[in-house]
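Example (one chain per record):
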Amino acid sequence: MTKRAVVLLSGGMDSMLCAALAREAGFKVLALTIDYHQRHRVELRAAAKIAAELAERHLVIDLDLTAFAGSALTSDIPVPKDSFGDTIPVTYVPARNTIFLSLALALAEAEGARDLFIGVNAVDYSGYPDCRPAFIAAFEAMANLGTKAGAEGERIRIHAPLLAMTKGDIVREAARLGLDAALSHSCYDPAGDGRHCGHCDACLLRIKGFAEAGVADPTRYS
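Predicted structure:
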């Protein structure tokens, strides 16, 4: 019997590759997208397009994180441009991956799935603490302690296949799998017509990835 996996699908290239790798590994993909009222809402449309290509089913949950201030992605705070700082950037959303993985865990248990995929990356990223191997390992341990499935001996696994990849690696893997990178969206501060700004952390990393991979970048930049 084909196994099912819950894949957190933001609409970015990392999550698109994650869904494709889950499918390549033999899983049917149950894609979960969180509408957390992010300023870059164009990524929700990207997630729908990607799910139509890769997922068995796509679930979108509305969870308004603008109630928690402090992030440039959910509050009226300028998105930093053209630089990477030495501290955790203001685009960090408080406990976002903890919240998202918890929702994915609940969905997986309800659906009888025991595998969760998340496209976090600890090499080329913006310094978020919830993208590190120690966080993923700790969440997996918690998942097996705090669920009915785990208590009954059905091991829950958190897969983070992009964890040790560079952005160049990610672009190369996407090309190997024949993925259309143009379907994905990375920008934190897109133009009104949906074009990438080309200057935020996410855009700079995306540009770097295509350049390192030697793959033509299909992204529309402002």
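Caption: DSSP finds seven helices and five strands in the chain.
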